[in-house]
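Late entry, written up from scratch paper. The run itself happened at the end of the previous shift, but nothing got recorded in the book at the time, so transcribing now.
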Amino acid sequence: VQLQASGGGLVQAGGSLRLSCAASGRTFSNYAMGWFRQHPGKEREFVAAIRWNSDLTYYADSVKGRFTISGDNAKNTVYLQMNSLKPEDTAVYYCAAQGRMYPSASYYYQDGIKYDYWGQGTQVTVSS
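Output as recorded:
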């Protein structure tokens, strides 16, 4: 199983970026995929997740209203549209996938331990 993340880069504050994560090796259409990020010297934190079979989405409070997670079942790909970017959004962004179904409570999607597969990170840098 491979998760290939792409779309990171350098953008000015207020700008937008769209991250993509393509999954190969198995389908995750019945489970969930998510995005996490890690700031330099800090622990990885949850950003957003989508539950494929119900289209439920979950967001960290820090990105609500600015970021949108979506998915394309046919392409086995999840996207993270990031608008109104702030310097504090600067981080390495990782996509991840769960290998089993969980209840709908947000806890199950905000905890990185619940994810079985991880992609390589993609750097997002927001300049002020």
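The chain has a mean pLDDT of 94.
(Scratch paper discarded after transcription.)
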